[in-house]
Amino acid sequence: FVLFLLDEVFEELSAERPIPYPSLAHLPCVPCSPQGTILRCPSELVEPSSTVAKLFDEDDHRFPYGEDLKKHKRQNALKQLGMMTDCLPWELLLERAKSCEELYLEKDPNKALH
Known about the structure:
The chain is mainly α. The protein has helices at 2-14, 72-80, 90-107, 109-113, and strands at 30-31, 39-40. It has a two-stranded antiparallel ribbon with strand order 1-2. The protein is elongated, with a radius of gyration of 15 Å.
């Protein structure tokens, strides 16, 4: 169902029409875990190949999961629905800084620095 909606969003964007289902941006409907049990809103996701992706790891459940969601048109639809690529909200940036500190102090200093 989510894949269908993302395809619809992409088609509307390609035709330069307004995004259908704008409320989809704030609906937890995109799987971000292998079992698909953890769902996130498109606006809470991070593009895996983006500049900010290095601040996250798979355990944070911020990346869309599954081959079907890696298709170019669906990635574009997710971006239009608010998936983060180049910048983060201040609250999330602060959370990431704290997680780097925890990683450095408690787990793996090398991983925190890279």
